[in-house]
Design a protein that fits this description.
Largest sheet: 11 strands, mixed
Number of helices: 2
Structural class: mainly beta
Strand content: over 45%
Helix content: under 10%
Length: 464
């Protein structure tokens, strides 16, 4: 009985409490920690003058995709009793639904004179169709437009959260609202400019932040979190929205990452505005003159269990651009996952796109490899020169292979010839020494002269 009495007292005080609106324009601070998976931690601080006892605090301008269960309202000497969420915003559909049971004005236009007249009716239903009760009849078709006397209670221009709190004493101070929301995300995007002659590469990274949460965030300090966070709760249903607007921001100093458990956090150096349906770009990193190695990789699966039927068409090796992400001590930083576009400098045409690749999250000091496409001026021709089962057990096969490499470049190149070999394999003979790079893989590195050819021959025995 005591618990029930306490609950009734809280509800009575909540009903009697005057509502204090804390406008978003008066924020004392706003911090957004945005994860790449679409989750954001919002920390919103607003000034408030409270009397002792119960007050109802309204926070307009919260995200329309707030996860309600995550909200925390806090302040010195405050006890939170009730939290209400109202994401109904003013729209024609919402206005109709909230006006059911109330009188509206129905405008009729005389088709001959064009004169307008207004007749009063009660809105009985708005979904799935409109039903109007006039003084002497009920109609289901609206002859003209509807006029509403006022905006129904609880229907605002923007999503809002309200909390009924109890203050131990009168106070001036900040009230903190912390919550999770979906609708914001970010991704990393990179541009790499390769200088083949110097063996160097310049890498620049941008963070592209998008807001589709249904709310504006003004003067927000942004922190971008790279890494995965486990989630088991469902996301709110997304609000309807139009196309995203793209806006390139000025290039501020690159942020320094901070370790955050298994993730990394990048704090942008200055507050920024992030409007709903807006996308902005921020400088993430600039690393110039990194040593780079360009390699050519030709990989194929050897048909070692059967004789090869006919000639296999020639192929071209993939181009691999590899560089070391500097260590933290050397000015490096963890690279968030993203797309890297690799360009080559050309004296006549400026920059030429070599290709693009996606990198995974890469720590500082790690090696980064980018596959940019196929080298059309290097040709690889694989031929099976022999296949034998003579005097061999039923599960053992032997085959001989010849791999010819032709280089049309004006400089010599190194090509990694990678053969994926099935079963339990053994190289019986080879014209160049291989490296067992994987349990099912052998790799030969061959130098092909400018405008010349090189041939690799090997014989392999495999067991099923």
């Amino acid at each position: 009985m005591r618990s029930l009495a306490v609950l009734l007292a809280v509800l009575t005080n909540a009903a009697a409490a005057a509502e204090i609106v804390l406008p978003a324009s008066d924020r004392a601070g706003l911090d957004l920690a945005i994860y790449a998976n679409g989750l954001t931690v919002v920390q919103d601080r607003r000034p408030a003058t409270l009397a002792a006892g119960a007050s109802r605090l309204a926070f307009p301008g919260v995200s329309g995709q707030m996860i309600p269960e995550s909200a925390i309202v806090s302040g010195e000497g405050l006890t939170v009793n009730i939290v209400d969420y109202d994401f109904a915003t003013l729209s024609p559909d919402a206005l109709l639904r909230r006006s059911v049971g109330h009188e509206v004005g129905v405008v009729r236009v005389n088709p001959t004179t064009g004169e307008e007249s207004v007749e009063r009716a009660t809105l009985l239903s708005a979904d799935p169709g409109i039903v109007l009760k006039y003084r002497d009849r009920i109609e289901t078709k609206v002859p003209g437009r509807l006029i509403f006397d006022e905006v129904p209670d609880g229907l605002g221009r923007e999503p809002a959260l309200a909390a009924t709190v109890h203050a131990d004493a009168a106070r001036d101070g900040e009230i903190a609202l912390t919550y999770l929301t979906t609708g914001l995300d970010w991704k990393a995007d990179y541009v790499a400019v390769l200088d083949e002659a110097a063996g160097r590469i310049d890498l620049s990274g941008r963070a592209i932040v998008r807001n589709a949460s249904g709310g504006d965030f003004t003067g927000a300090r942004l922190s971008l979190v790279a890494g995965e966070v486990r989630r088991i709760s469902a996301s709110p249903r997304p609000r309807a929205r139009g196309e995203m607007m793209e806006m390139a921001a000025a290039a501020p100093p690159a942020p320094a990452p901070e370790g955050l458990g298994s993730a990394y956090l990048y704090r942008l150096p200055a507050p920024t505005d992030l409007a709903d349906r807006q996308s902005r770009q921020f400088t993430l990193l600039n690393a110039a003159n990194l040593p780079v190695e360009q390699r050519f990789v030709s990989e194929s699966s050897a048909q070692a269990f059967a004789a090869q039927a006919g000639e296999v068409p020639p192929s071209h090796p993939n181009v691999s651009v590899r560089f070391a992400n500097p260590s933290t001590d050397a000015g490096g930083m963890p690279l968030p996952a993203g797309i890297v576009r690799v360009y080559a400098a050309s004296g006549e045409t400026g920059l030429v796109l070599l290709g693009e690749d996606r990198i995974s999250d890469s720590p500082a000091g790690a090696s980064v490899a980018l596959e940019t496409g196929a080298a059309f001026d290097i040709t690889v021709q694989r031929r099976q020169t022999d296949f034998s089962r003579v005097d061999l057990p039923e599960t053992v096969f032997e085959s001989g292979w010849s791999i010819e490499l032709a280089n049309a470049k004006r400089r010599p190149v190194n090509v990694d010839v990678v053969e994926d070999l099935p079963g339990d394999w053994e190289i019986l003979g080879e014209s160049a020494e291989h490296v067992k790079t994987r349990a099912d893989q052998a790799t030969w590195t061959l130098t092909v002269p400018a405008g010349g050819r090189t041939t690799l021959e090997y014989r392999v025995r495999v067991r099923q």
